[in-house]
Write a structure and sequence with these properties.
286 residues; six-stranded mixed sheet; globular; arginine deiminase activity
Length: 286
């Protein structure tokens, strides 16, 4: 059953305080943007009149992968397929926790074939992929933090899928509703930094969802519009290092003040499709 936190009376957000951060070796899955293009528009960032340079996109993607490898993380690859330009956004492919894997059920027809390919990859790695009855867009809207799963809705993932996710993984799920179409997935408006710390952009959420977040994460980092609009929150953290879009300079300063080590990367070409660092990174949680 989906769990909703009750807002505390007079709860107010505070800024994360410096503490000792520890990196943990991570396991990531990525898909090269070999066929990346903006051939349709299913989010406000996509403009079919704005040409995409696939060579630049590949170079930026390789830089991101190389950063992960240099940090000692494992990176597995899923082979992209022609005609599926959004496969580079691997985070949307599903959710994998402790050997259990849910494969995405996409909202838009343009992406539905991706589910079968990610399911095939999961089977090739020994998983038995589980399908939800309702739309879920993987780690785009399903973000584990500690023993809880934060689950987004409003634009992509059906809130009815949240209860299914809770049952499949045996974890409490906190439902959060997004209201700004520019932040159509949870991972565009909220970043998990460690098992207790998140960063988010408050205006992307309903009042009730903001109240839940204020109660659950009173020391969260609250990001300004300038950093949110460059997809600064579409970031990946290993508990110490936070890989984020380089243009989010204010967020980088906030991370440093909170004891994290920010690493900026330029994924501007991939932002043309409405994705950045986290969108390109499916984490295998164990």
């Amino acid at each position: 059953m989906t769990r909703f936190a009750e807002p505390a009376a007079g709860a107010a957000p505070t800024t994360a305080v410096p503490t000792e951060r520890r990196a943990k070796t991570r396991h990531y899955v990525m898909t090269p943007p070999r066929h990346f293009a903006v051939d349709y528009a299913i989010n406000p960032w996509m403009d079919t009149a704005n040409p995409v340079d696939t060579t630049v996109a590949m170079a930026q993607w390789h830089q991101l992968r190389d950063i992960y490898l240099q940090m000692g993380h494992t990176v597995d690859l899923v082979e992209p397929a022609p005609g599926l330009p959004d496969m580079v956004y691997a985070a949307n492919g599903g959710l994998i926790i402790d050997g259990t894997a849910v494969v995405a059920r996409f909202k838009y027809a343009q992406r539905k074939q991706e589910s079968a390919l990610y399911a095939d990859w999961l089977r090739s790695r020994g998983y038995q992929p589980v399908h939800t009855r309702h739309v879920n867009e993987g780690q785009g809207d399903l973000l584990p933090v500690g023993g809880t799963i934060l689950a987004g809705s409003g634009f992509r993932t059906d809130p009815r899928a949240h209860g299914q996710i809770a049952e499949i993984f045996g974890r409490p799920v906190v439902s959060l509703e997004l209201v700004d179409p520019r932040f159509y997935h949870l991972d565009t408006a909220l970043a998990v930094l460690d098992d207790e710390t998140i960063a988010y952009y408050p205006p992307a959420f309903t009042y009730a969802s903001r109240a839940h977040l204020e109660t659950l994460f009173p020391q969260a980092i609250l990001v300004d519009s300038a950093d949110a609009y460059v997809f600064g929150l579409n970031s990946v953290s290993d508990g110490l290092h936070v890989v984020h879009p380089a243009a989010a300079v204010g967020f980088a300063e906030q991370l440093s003040d909170a004891g994290f080590e920010p690493i900026g990367v330029d994924l501007s070409e991939l932002l043309k499709g409405g994705g950045s660092v986290k969108c390109c990174t499916l984490e295998v949680y164990s």
